[in-house]
Write a structure and sequence with these properties.
There is one protein chain. The protein is α+β, with helices and mostly antiparallel strands and about 230 residues long. It is built from 5 helices and 11 strands. The chain has 2 domains: about 110 residues, Glucose Permease (Domain IIA) (Distorted Sandwich), CATH 2.70.70; about 80 residues, no CATH class. The strands form 3 sheets. Strands 3, 5, 6, 7, 8, 10 and 11 form a 7-stranded antiparallel β-sheet that branches. The chain has a two-stranded antiparallel sheet with strand order 1-2. It has a two-stranded antiparallel ribbon with strand order 4-9. Helix 2 crosses helix 3 and helix 3 crosses helix 4.
Length: about 230
């Protein structure tokens, strides 16, 4: 399912608030972010035709909230400037305005928080929306969970193979071939060993804090890069 971005150009996702693990802007604690935040004042629009399934307000949460059911997925909009002019159970089309971005609810500034939930729209049952905006949904999409498991390593190998750097099997089991290819991709010394210098080089390439420790923030950034084709 390919979707149209619910924000206009040239607005972009706040680099500190992508989908996945991040430092919460209010609590300061590490927390999983189930959507993407786009800072600024702009009209928030419908990403694909569907039916308005929920209109509400949460003072300590999403402020003015709107949910649109697309069948396979549910779009969720938070922090609107005011209540939407849409009506519950009404059909909507791509590009139709939901409301202007705002800062209602638990918010530190004017922005749109957008989520893409799986069928049914249950809270927390989300996916990274960015591949859907970039026409990448036909490619392998991995869960952005901050865990460096076999599926993530397999997609790392696939990405490195696409750059002509990895010549081994796509088995999700990293070894000397995988580490060497990853080092070449990141511009580190290609010695085939996964040390702190290599980890820092990869972090720099991803644009995250280069401390040599791969926690959930680093791994989430890598998973997002794999999903959106920038790895």
């Amino acid at each position: 399912m390919n979707l149209t971005k619910p924000w206009p150009e040239p607005f972009t996702v706040n680099e500190k608030s992508p989908y996945g693990w991040r430092k919460h802007p209010i609590s300061g604690k590490r927390a999983f972010h189930h959507g993407v935040d786009v800072r600024g004042s702009f009209p928030c629009t419908v990403t694909d035709e569907g039916v308005v399934s929920h209109i509400g307000f949460s003072r300590r949460g999403g402020g003015h909230v709107v949910k649109i059911d697309h069948g396979e997925y549910v779009s969720v909009y938070y922090h609107g400037k005011h209540r939407t002019g849409l009506k519950k159970r009404s059909r909507v089309v791509t590009g139709q305005e939901v409301y202007p971005s705002g800062t209602t609810g638990a918010s530190t500034g004017v922005h749109l928080h957008y989520e893409l939930r799986k069928r049914g729209g249950r809270w927390g049952n989300t996916v990274d929306p960015m591949p859907h905006f970039m026409g990448k949904v036909s490619a392998p999409v991995i869960k952005v969970d901050g865990r460096l498991g076999r599926n993530t390593w397999r997609e790392i190998q696939r990405g490195l193979k696409g750059h002509g750097l990895y010549l081994g099997r796509l088995d999700g089991r990293p070894g000397t071939l995988t580490y060497t290819a990853l080092q070449e991709w990141a511009g580190a010394n290609p010695d085939g060993r996964m040390g702190p210098n290599t980890r820092r080089a990869v972090q720099e390439k991803l644009g995250v804090k280069a401390d040599g420790n791969w926690g959930r923030l680093t791994i989430s950034a890598m998973q997002r890069a794999l999903n959106d084709g920038t790895f």
